[in-house]
Amino acid sequence: MNTESKFASLKEKEREARKQIIIESALALFAKKPFYDVGMRDVADEAGVSPATLYRYFPSQEELFVEAFIQDISSVSKAFEGMVKKDAPATIEDFAVTYVDHLIQNESTFQMMTYIMLKDNMDDQALKEFGAVTRIFFDGFSRILERYGVKENVRLYAQSFIGALSGIIMSYRNYAGKDKTQIREHILKVTRITAEIYSHKLIP
After folding, report:
1. Could you tell me which residues come within 8 angstroms of residue 8 by beta carbon, excluding any fewer than 6 positions away?
2. 3-state secondary structure of 135
3. How does pLDDT run along the chain (204 residues), one tens digit per residue?
4. CB-CB contact of 175 with 183 (8 Å)
5. Which helix (H) or strand (E) element contains residue 158?
6. Residue ranges of the HTH tetR-type domain (predicted)?
7. How far is CA 37 from CA 51, 52, 112, 146, 158, in A?
8. Which domains does the chain have, with CATH numbers?
9. What does the DSSP 8-state code read for residue 174?
10. Helices 92-105 & 124-147, crossing angle to 10 degrees?
11. Reported pTM
12. Cα–chain center distance at 170
């Protein structure tokens, strides 16, 4: 590798390191306060860069949010991969509880996901990246169904199931008169009932 190539490689590594610092700073802020209260200037201050520098790495707020979401969800994606690859695939209930409990325990992840889902006029590239990472859930559940011998409408069942689980969280995350522990218990109870319905319907 010549000197010019080495320099270009070093510059790219430095750029990726700065980008990673910005993403980690955004995630740190999301852990401290509501996702929707975090602005680009807040992230720039947390990362120790100017807003202008931040926008060079992330031209829009949506792009930053999607990158943060992708990184935040990477840990749980490994859990889903493990569920599918086991000699005996995970049950539908195991899959459902893992999905729901991760989003309950990681409020910022859930906020980012719902924000991106509901945002009008999202940047095309950001939407494409978001779609790629959320396919982890659909693909994982589809593969579990296939391991159990389901052959028809697998993708539709996966879309229906993930939609149902997300809807359960949205419906009960602010359940009036209950504390966080009670809310989690109720959401998981409804999740298990939903998983049981799908199991009886789909698995011979």
Report:
1. none
2. helix
3. 666 666 666 667 788 888 999 999 998 888 788 777 889 999 999 999 999 999 999 988 878 888 888 887 776 777 777 777 767 778 999 999 999 998 888 877 888 788 777 877 777 777 787 788 788 889 889 999 998 999 999 999 999 999 999 999 999 988 888 998 999 999 999 999 999 999 999 987
4. yes
5. helix 154-172
6. 16-76
7. 17, 20, 12, 41, 32
8. 1-58 (1.10.10.60), 61-202 (1.10.357.10)
9. T
10. 150
11. 0.78
12. 15
Query: Two tokens at 92?
Result: 């539908």
At which residue do the structure tokens 């095309």 appear? 124
Instruction: Tell me the two tokens of residue 127.
Output: 């939407």
Q: At CB < 8 A and 24+ separation, what contacts does 9-14 make?
A: none
Determine the residue type at 85: K
